[in-house]
């Protein structure tokens, strides 16, 4: 594949890796089935298209047997979960494709927590959540999140680092916690990606969109989900940084972020991606 195993993973290595994966996504246009929440559908599909991937918001259980095996990756997001969607999520997650879970507001209810834990038992390649979601999932408890804010995080990503490692070890998934620094871990190694701007939290479903992007990167690099997830998070954050340069607030950032993702070039990615292995 590449010489990463022999080479020191310094910032330049990560920059080249991020550019290489984005280039492969653009060249191969991986098909990503998205069973995602109603709020996120537009921004997730547009982020995937801007990055060069091919989104398909296909969520009927009756379509899973025909459609999911032909996808390069599956993205499951429980943000607007209802009982009738859960069978499709289970079936798509079980179809043998690399798949990524976004456990939106995992602590909102016992129903949602049980659904997330059940899905995590189906071997997701990556779980990406905000700090409050990852803390709740690692504790397997709705009650553990005494202070709870629905889909938004009340914690810093660093607060959930140990929880992320524990969840990665118990589930076998790579776990990513987003925030000012995005942490990505397989339970042993921890990588930090520090691109992004705080205003991204003021656009609904940017987290959902970056999880969709992780699915596209995992589709082209299924054997190294840690690297794929870190590069997707850094690339999305970098698009936010560039987008912010022309934005007045959340609505214009949403537009400029998608434009910036579409326009990223080699020089920008290799010089501005900020990823580092944590000590
Ligand atoms: N303080 C911050 N500084 C820089 N980037 C940030 C900050 N907070 C979040 N981000 C970035 O914003 C994006 C969304 O992350 P966030 O943690 O807000 O997700 P989320 O809470 O799951 O969002 P949602 O549920 O609305 O989709 C990620 O790319 C993350 O890196
Ligand atoms: C606001 C909101 N509510 C359910 S899903 C969602 C999008 C952000 O996760
Ligand atoms: Mg979220």
From TrEMBL:
Entry keywords, A to Z: ATP-binding, Kinase, Magnesium, Metal-binding, Nucleotide-binding, Thiamine biosynthesis, Transferase
Pathway: Cofactor biosynthesis; thiamine diphosphate biosynthesis; 4-methyl-5-(2-phosphoethyl)-thiazole from 5-(2-hydroxyethyl)-4-methylthiazole: step 1/1
Identification of the protein by name: Hydroxyethylthiazole kinase
GO biological process: thiamine diphosphate biosynthetic process; thiamine salvage
Record's keyword annotation contains Cell division: no
Enzyme nomenclature, EC number: 2.7.1.50
GO molecular function, one term: magnesium ion binding
Highest taxon in the source lineage: Eukaryota
């Amino acid at each position: 594949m590449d010489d990463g195993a022999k080479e020191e993973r310094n910032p330049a290595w990560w920059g080249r890796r991020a550019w290489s994966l984005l280039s492969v996504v653009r060249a191969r246009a991986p098909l990503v089935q998205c069973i995602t929440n109603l709020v996120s559908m537009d921004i997730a599909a547009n982020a995937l298209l801007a990055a060069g991937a091919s989104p398909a918001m296909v969520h009927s259980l009756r379509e899973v047997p025909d459609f999911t095996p032909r996808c390069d990756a599956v993205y499951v997001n429980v943000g607007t979960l209802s009982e009738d969607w859960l069978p499709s999520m289970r079936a798509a997650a079980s179809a043998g494709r690399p798949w990524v879970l976004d456990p939106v507001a995992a602590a909102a209810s016992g129903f949602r927590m049980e659904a997330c834990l059940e899905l995590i038992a189906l071997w997701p390649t990556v779980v990406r959540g905000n700090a409050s979601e990852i803390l709740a999932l690692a504790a397997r408890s709705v009650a553990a999140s005494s202070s709870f804010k629905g889909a938004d995080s009340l914690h810093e990503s660093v607060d959930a680092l140990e929880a992320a490692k524990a969840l990665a070890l118990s589930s076998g998934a790579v776990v990513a916690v987003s925030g000012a620094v995005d942490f990505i871990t397989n339970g042993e190694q921890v990588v930090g990606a520090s691109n992004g701007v705080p205003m991204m939290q003021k656009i609904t479903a940017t987290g959902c969109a970056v999880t969709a992007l992780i699915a596209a990167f995992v589709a082209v690099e299924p054997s190294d989900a840690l690297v794929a997830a870190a590069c997707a998070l850094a690339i999305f954050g970098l698009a936010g940084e560039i987008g912010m340069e022309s934005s007045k607030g959340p609505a214009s950032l949403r537009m400029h972020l998608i434009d910036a993702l579409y326009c990223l070039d080699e020089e920008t990615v290799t010089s501005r991606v900020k990823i580092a292995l944590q000590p």
